[in-house]
Amino acid sequence: MAEYEKLVISEAEGCWLTTTTGQRLFDGVASLWCNVHGHRHPSIDEAIRNQLGRVAHITTLGMSADITEALAERIVEITPGDLSHVFFSSDGSSSVEAALKMALQYWHQRQNPRPKKTRYLAMSLAYHGDTTGAVSLGGIKYFHQLFAPIVFTPIRGPLPCSYRLPDGVSVDEACDHYAAEVETLLKQHHETLAAIVMEPLVQGAAGMITHPSGFLSRVRQLCDHYEVLLICDEVATGFGRTGRMFACDHESVTPDIMTIGKGLTGGYLPMAATVARPHLFEAFLAATAESKQFFHGHTFGGNPLAAAAAMASIDLFSENNLLESVEQKGRVLRSSLAGIANHANVGDIRGRAMMVGIELVKDRETKMPFDSAELVGKRVCQRATELGVWVRPLGDVVILMPPLIATDEELQRAGAVVCQAIGEVLEGESTGGKYVSGLP
């Protein structure tokens, strides 16, 4: 806060934000990766107004709302495979907390219980939220190092990165290499492992770390073989970001538990969900006196206003054939960055579809990072904001993740601004990307 520069939004429409000083900014990170259809979308606005005229909130402890039940059915329809039971919460971190508790309780209560299965395996540089259990899974030191006395320690898996590969490992060998590392850990720990928890395909907060193709399906196979649950955290990757409704769809993987949030309501209202397969649910299905129920609840879980927004958002995917355009828009976004593709300080441009990370490095050949004290990523993003595109860094990785409805022109101009900002901050190198004034 000692270096905080005030930026306050007074209104928004489509992909554009307007500050209290009158500046118009392209929302280049979809208001922290959650806005799907743009701000003030008429259909979602109307759905919330209509629901407000019926009921704004009731508890889902001992009762439910008709709109929330309808949403649960819709979530079951769009999630992979036989994911069929939905537990609502208010944010992504809470959905992960619920998943951790479900997994542990499952092993205690299922037929042929395995009560020693109390540990979790998480990937290196993982991020699953900021609450205590989610922080425990995390592998980014700034989020968990200080809190070591109050968190549990997971078994730490590899960082399945396609850019910074281990010595002697080629791109074609990467999937086999990382899968073998996971299998080594499973061989050693499977008897005490409740679940592997992972972000499928892309580790967002780690800097858009992109997994080699096939890694997710290999992990699913290993979990089946060693009798370990698979929890996929789709809070960031879900709802079209990777070009499919969920990242798991790319490799036809059905996790045992999936966590969703962010884009669930189109970025309108706080809502998340933990979705489980039948064998998970059945371990909790018993008479009250057996005390097998899931002792976990949220005051605003399944909130009707949020459910109405979510229903409208999901409807828009099919009404507008949105998924069919996301891959193409991702190509437009990447093409807009062609001017910096060979920049001396651009090490990698990566991601999936509309999830893009630009890693800035001191030396492109050696992949040597900048000294963190130089705040290169932050300065690039500050300059881009001055030029009309709001983006945020993850260290020295500049993130571009706009709403899925952004037009080709908006994407091209956003990319041009980021190119210019990188060029100006990094010694004025020529980038080929010129800022275009008079943006819509």
TrEMBL record:
GO terms for molecular function: adenosylmethionine-8-amino-7-oxononanoate transaminase activity; pyridoxal phosphate binding. PROSITE patterns: AA_TRANSFER_CLASS_3. Pathway: Cofactor biosynthesis; biotin biosynthesis; 7,8-diaminononanoate from 8-amino-7-oxononanoate (SAM route): step 1/1. Its main location: cytoplasm. The record marks 7 as: Participates in the substrate recognition with KAPA and in a stacking interaction with the adenine ring of SAM. One of its GO terms (biological process) is biotin biosynthetic process. Pfam families: Aminotran_3. Its cofactor is pyridoxal 5'-phosphate. Signal peptide: none annotated. GO terms for cellular component: cytoplasm. It catalyses: (8S)-8-amino-7-oxononanoate + S-adenosyl-L-methionine = S-adenosyl-4-methylsulfanyl-2-oxobutanoate + (7R,8S)-7,8-diammoniononanoate. The keyword Cytoplasm applies. Its EC number is 2.6.1.62. It comes from the Bacteria. Pyridoxal 5'-phosphate binds at residues 92-93, 233, 298-299. Substrate binds at residues 127, 262, 297, 392. CDD domains: OAT_like. It is an enzyme of class 2 (transferase). Keywords: Aminotransferase, Biotin biosynthesis, Cytoplasm, Pyridoxal phosphate, S-adenosyl-L-methionine, Transferase. PANTHER family: ADENOSYLMETHIONINE-8-AMINO-7-OXONONANOATE AMINOTRANSFERASE. HAMAP family: BioA. Catalyzes the transfer of the alpha-amino group from S-adenosyl-L-methionine (SAM) to 7-keto-8-aminopelargonic acid (KAPA) to form 7,8-diaminopelargonic acid (DAPA). It is the only aminotransferase known to utilize SAM as an amino donor. Belongs to the class-III pyridoxal-phosphate-dependent aminotransferase family. BioA subfamily. This is Adenosylmethionine-8-amino-7-oxononanoate aminotransferase. It comes from Novipirellula artificiosorum.
